[in-house]
Amino acid sequence: MASAVIFLCFFFFLLCTSHAANDTQANFLNCFLEATGGSSSSPSMIYTPNDTSNFATLYRSSIQNLRFLSSGAETPSFLILPSVAHDAQAAVLCCRLHGVRLRVRSGGHDYEGLSYVSFTSTDEPFAVLDLSGLRSIEVDAADHTAWVGAGATLGEVYYNVAAASPTDGFPAGICSTVGVGGHISGGGIGSLHRKYGLAADNVVDVRMVNAEGELLTRETMGEDLFWAIRGGGAANFGIVVAYKLRLVPVPPKLTVFSVSRTLGQGATRLLNSWQSIAPRLADDLWIRVSVIAIGEAPANRTIQATFQGLFLGPRGATLAAIQKSFPELGVRAEDCNELSWVESTLYFGGHALNNTRALLNRQPAFNSSFKAKSDFVREPISEEAWEGIWKVMMEGEEEPLEMIFEPWGGRHWEIEDDAIAFPHRKGNLYNIQYFMRWFETQTEVTERHLTWMRRLYDYMAPHVSSNPRAAYINYKDIDLGCSTEGRTSYKEASAWGIRYFLRNFDKLAKVKARVDPENYFWNEQGIPPFAAW
């Protein structure tokens, strides 16, 4: 049956591409279909734009940022959905052999769309390898580990871990539709990171396809490559098809809370205190802040700061911990909910608490465009400076721009800057994510929003890290620099590489030179081999 399906796919796509595609593309298609014909009883599928209904539906299925669909960026010549690791190997070998570039998509949250579009000025065709079919999750509750396919979402991980063990969790992000592959490879901040470190800190093994099409594990890839793909963006070095995760202990009940304050209710004073207190709280207590301008017109606006928290313990212990460390926040018993760990992921993800199956929904939560940027803060920002920041935020005429403050400290400060490729550890008080979403598709609307975002980012320069002004790779930002020539020099890549990876950038480029010297896994903001032109 499998061979019959492959034959029909092969015949159909040859018909579709015989008139429209060049020899390179036809040869690649032939190579891939032959290489995967006997690999699985559920064979991988491959689509071209000529199959207008299936291609468009599947291509758009996990795209979270719609602005790239109308930006003039190049879309793929092929969409590949592997069902087994062997088919990812075939994709690499056939793509390289026939001059087709390869992009890898897990959940589709890539902030600048580089996992599914191309801004290159060359005419090279490219394929998107969509890993959503590689999302099996095998939890070993006795060993407190889980093998997770890189195409799984965080929500699927949380659901399956909780189903296997109510006292195990995993420290990763709060958005359930984010793909495991990208999130973990860039670091992975979440509500448990002060207690247990990043998602990438808790990876103990991987299965990865390298530029030669070989399937590697930690044992066979070497520790330098295993180091690089935890925080350095795995797609720079190959295709991780599965991660082995170390699960972490969570209590049967923990407590979440949320309180909001406007300027008139002391938001500035509270945030000013938070930035020094939050990184030094007990590891069991995590409090982040979301700040947004509310009100219809600039003259009627104010700032609202929402303090969201999680404590690894019951309500009474939560209130006692806050009263001891941050009493001015004014958290009351009625602001708190006692939940299981998996229910807390629903809470922070905006889902109903009685529907854990919502974590299995892979569909984008919004049909919109967005832009984000990031910063790290190493010294407290003064109250006077906050007042200036609020003024800028309230003057905007576009959609509200949100600032999200994630506290550091705890495990972050204990782990060395070079323990994995993610380098932003000691000395940072917190991370800032600037985030703006809009729903119009016109180019001029997008440009207005981007201009407004860049204005606030420029205004923040005196208050954040410098030399370099650091950034978080999972909040990818092509404003930091990018290449569109299909190749990148080490010097050129330093513009963004040093900001994402600080002193770890050199080592990442040297690992790249060893494992992918021809820079096959190139993208516009990638890591080139150290000895690149």
Automatic annotation (TrEMBL):
Cofactor(s) listed in the protein's UniProt record: FAD
Record-linked InterPro entries: BBE, FAD-bd_PCMH, FAD-bd_PCMH-like_sf, FAD-bd_PCMH_sub1, FAD-bd_PCMH_sub2, Oxid_FAD_bind_N
Endpoints of the signal sequence: 1-20
One Pfam family cited in the UniProt record for this chain: FAD_binding_4
FAD-binding PCMH-type domain span: 71-250
Keywords in alphabetical order: FAD, Flavoprotein, Glycoprotein, Signal
Record GO terms (molecular function): FAD binding; oxidoreductase activity
Gene3D superfamilies: 3.30.465.10, 3.40.462.20, Uridine Diphospho-n-acetylenolpyruvylglucosamine Reductase, domain 2 (3.30.43.10)
Homology family: Belongs to the oxygen-dependent FAD-linked oxidoreductase family.
PANTHER family: OS08G0158400 PROTEIN
Protein's recorded name: FAD-binding PCMH-type domain-containing protein
